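New to this. Help decode the following:
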Amino acid sequence: MGRQLLIVWHSRTGGTEAMARAAFEGARGEGEARLMRAGEAGAEDVLGTDGYLFAAPENLAGLSGEMKEFFDRCYYPVLGKIEGRPYAQMICAGSDGSGAARQLARIATGWRLREVQPPMIVNTAAQTPSQILAPKVLETAVLEKCRELGAGLMAGLAGGIW
């Protein structure tokens, strides 16, 4: 059996979900990928996969609650069992996204994962309550970059680069 990429995502307004689905489309073109909502993914999914793409919105300068809860549930059951596996991350934010990216990177560092791509941060510029809560529609160019990220990560896994 070939190597597998797990894409774990959470989204409230659709932006991060669109990014994760685009990355999944790209990854499937290169090999075996799984797309799972953070609330449904568990430690067994993390353990049974060779690489990871985590996609989350930034809420209040950190990871969304459901994404953080995924890491809380899975952290200790997989600790010491996935070291060196590759990961990348995508953040959908209304401003800079760096808080969520830093938080996710710290978790991945604790798991001893290997970052193989700098964080992809998409800034929707949503600043007012109505903009923040509104459904997000991302530009085609942004979604294409997400497809490329998924394809590249999966190609690296399939080709044994990481």
